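Backbones bend. To wit:
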Amino acid sequence: MFVLDGWYTLVDFMLPFPWVAHTFMKNAFLAIILVMPLFGLLGTMVVNNRMAFFSDSLGHGAFTGIALGTLLGLIEPLAAIILFSIVFAGIITYIKHRSTASSDTIIGVFSSFAIALGLIIMSRSGSFAKYSSYLIGDLLSISQEDIFMILVVFLVIICLWVFIFNRILIVSINPSLAASRGIDTLMSEMLFSAALAIVVSISIQWVGLLIINSMLVLPAAAARNVSNNVRQYHLFSIFIALLSGIAGLIMSYYWNTATGATIVLFASGMFFLTFSLRHRFLS
């Protein structure tokens, strides 16, 4: 754990605050630095493509993954969560492309199915109370092993984003134009959906199912209020996500409140602030 030892030493040296004395706060602080930029980055496309309902449904799919992991007897159901969420996101994306029904209708059907199936499995197995913590999350429970997993996911998502961003952007603006340029619109959206599903899956145990969608939507929505171009949109969204994450983590320590909810509170405040200042930035 040489890397984390170096991180602990750096934080102790740079941040002379009482909360730094706790290892769990240092772990959570590093996790925030790795995870929140992913929320800010992916959230830009979620907001731009009006996919807030879709990202919320992924949380329901992740809950069903927890239930399936319990049913299969997995001590740590994370693998089941990730696998089911990716499959769930892929099926929704595929049917959206093949069906004449509205996207909201399709997402609503699958979201309802997923949460109902998860609740049935949990109630039958008698494990609902055991995994009810996933509804709220516990960011301060992140271990060193979790951080290394987050780091791997961070690097994979960044590499994937570099690869698919231009394609996803064109598809979001004009699918017909994208198809005429030889872009496989279905595959591009599948890859984006998979990236979104992975980030939601690994974060839900620390953030909580109830507010996971807020982490994706609020930073990007706030950034959109004050952005004049795509580059600003991405940079502002990442900055707001990081700022909200760090502020929420630190203040939850002093207020003794749920960390995920406190982060969302700060992100909401950033949205209202940028909304009130939008005319100055866009004039």
